[in-house]
Input
Amino acid sequence: SAGKIIAVSANAARLSLPLLAQSQIPQPVFCIGPSTSSVLEEAGYAVRVPDGAYNSESLLKLPEFELVSGQIVAILCGQGGRDYLEDMLAEMGGNVRRIELYSRQPLDVEILEIEHLEIPDALTAMSGDTAEALARALDLTGREEWKSLPLVVPGKRVSAIAENLGFNRIVATDKPTTEGLIDALQKMQKKAGNSSGSDPQAV
Output
């Protein structure tokens, strides 16, 4: 059995429920953010989310991970995706086991129908994959100028990806939730006209 279990997404949490029900598991289950933790809470499991920002870095700063050396850590995740958690836990001495519960499919840019949309006030990309799919769609539909629109992303990692893709008005929020997104958009509106360049604005 695992010394610790980490669920990295709501999909992973949802698809893990039949597996978790088959055996006694260590609790709490560690979750990156509230959308993931709510799935497990509703199923009756104790959960723990990071203090402050909802990301892998903040999760690993929890005191429970200070003495992870020698422990088995199961990561509930999809195929592919970010290896940061696995790499860092291994560096900390953890015995990491990936439990891949679903496959990650590239977003189909055709379903975005960007060419039929009016120009929006802002864009959002809640993952690196989404930012890449959005950039691809803009390039294919001749809407490269949309890369100059405000783009809200969750944290520094995705903001760096977005900047490399050519977006130049990036707003980074550490709260990749509906409330965090709304708050970022509101703060962005207040700062409209006062920022320039491609440096991400932290909100």
